[in-house]
Amino acid sequence: MTGTRKFLFAYRFEGAEYGFDIPAKDADEAKRRLGALGLARYDGEIFATIHVPGGNILANLIGFFKQKRR
Description:
Blueprint: E1 5-13, E2 16-24, H1 27-36, H2 57-69
Antiparallel strand pairs: 1-2
C-alpha cells in the first residue's frame, strides 16, 4: 500500500502480551481497520516470506514489456 504508515496495536492473551501493526494512512483509519478484524477469515499459515528489494518486480516487468511493444 503506497502512502501508508504502520500503526502498532497490542493485546493480552493467556497472560502474555502480543503486538501487531496495521498499515493505514492515519491513526483513525488504523482504528477502523482494527474494528474490521472481527470480520476477518482464516486463510492459512504463513510458512515463509520473501523480501524482494526494489519494489514490485512484476509491475516493473509489465511496464518494461509494454514500452518494448511501442
